[in-house]
Amino acid sequence: MVKEKLKVLLVEDNPTDALIVKKRIQRDNAFEYDIAHVVSGEDALVILEKNFFNIVLLDYNLPKKSGLETLKTIKAKNIEIPIVMITGQGDEQVAAALIKEGAFDYLPKRDGYEDSIPLMIRKTIAEFRAKLERENLQKEIVLRKEELEKTNAQLMKLDNMKSDFVANIVHELRTPLTIIKGNLDNIDKGFAGEVQPKQKEILGDIFRVINRLSRLVNDLLDLSKIESGKMELNKESLDIVKLAGESVKAFETLASSKKIGLVKEFPDKLVIVNADKDKLAQVFVNLLGNAVKFTDNGNVTVKIIDLQGEVEVRIQDTGPGIPSDQLDKIFDKFVRVLAETKEGTGLGLPIAKDIIVLHKGRIRVESESGIGTSFIFMIPK
Ligand SMILES: Nc1ncnc2c1ncn2[C@@H]1O[C@H](COP(=O)(O)OP(=O)(O)O)[C@@H](O)[C@H]1O
Ligand SMILES: [Mg+2]
Asked: Which pTM value belongs to this model?
């Protein structure tokens, strides 16, 4: 096996000591040693600047530039090398100071101290390498973290740009849509000449599509406002029982045309919450709209439960239910399970959820295929 070659710099002014140490190191069989010997701190610095060493054994008692001064200078020059100080008899008390100045370890010159030098060299180099590895790893972690933070910031910027872009486009779509609707209305009312039955039929189809488009545009606008944090709540004290009653009333015609019942289970007293009336009404419309839309038999029940500090609202139907594997996605944008059977944008639930969350409330769904669905939301009083 090829032995690793370790380059040792011995800084020692006493020739006898230097010889003893060199000989002792060379007797160690674990490594091949290449020992350079200098007699002063000044020489040590010169040779260290030009050559690579694995370790420095530095005598504390040197003439002229002392061991401590030499140690400080090496450290100041940022030379990455472990330094073991060889202290004289009685110098032990300086050990702490030497370690503080960056010495890796120290070895007092007692009788036979040279015998512990080979082990000291091995131990020091191993520990120094482990320390370097740890430091490199830490640097790597810091670097990666910085990279991630940068990427994250870029993504957030892009996401904001995307949101602004959507908001602008959607906003721009509203004006032409309004104009188209107004003009169609004029044609439909006969202001541009008599309308034939076939033309009336076609106009009806166009109206349906245009209405769908404006629903989508309005929903998108709401969502982009919520997502960009621009949606503000105009909170007031309001009776949620009254608001729910009005919302249910708006669906009576549709429900009776589908022959489904609309059941109210309300407390017979006011239940006051602090909420944005229009936004909360929209939550009712979105949830009731779904319940009535997807239910073809049975009832839609709205239940209000007055709890301590909050109000629970349940909108329960006897519709087809939502498959359990879809339940956790149902509040995501554009998710529609029965898309082909009913009209919709897939934005009603995300909007409802955002509005409830803006009110510091919670919303959840319970559903069983073939049995029905309940949307439950809680809103603080
Ligand atoms: N009461 C309900 N019963 C069954 N499915 C529902 C109900 N409410 C919502 N869903 C499912 O959730 C999807 C998303 O609802 P929503 O966000 O309101 O979008 P949309 O109503 O425009 O399709 C619906 O397409 C439907 O698949
Ligand atoms: Mg809907």
From this structure: 0.64
Distance of CA 100 to the CA centre of its chain: 41
Q: Residues, the chain, total?
A: 381
Domains and CATH numbers, the chain: 5-111 (3.40.50.2300), 150-227 (1.10.287.130), 235-380 (3.30.565.10)
The tokens for 236 are 């007031």
Q: What is the mean pLDDT of residues 166-182?
A: 89
**201-254 tens-digit pLDDT:** 999 999 999 998 998 898 888 888 888 777 889 999 999 999 999 999 999 999
**Protein residue with its CA nearest to atom 13 in ligand 1:** 336
Beta strands 55-59; 5-11: pairing state: parallel
- Protein residue closest via CA to atom 7 of ligand 1: 290
pLDDT in tens, 23-34: 999 999 888 999
Distance 276 CA to ligand 1 centre (A): 24
What is the Å distance from ligand 1's center to 218 Cα? Answer: 18
Q: Point out the ligand nearest to the CA of residue 337.
A: 1
Give me ligand 2 centre to Cα 113, in Å. 86
At position 310, the amino acid (one-letter code) is E
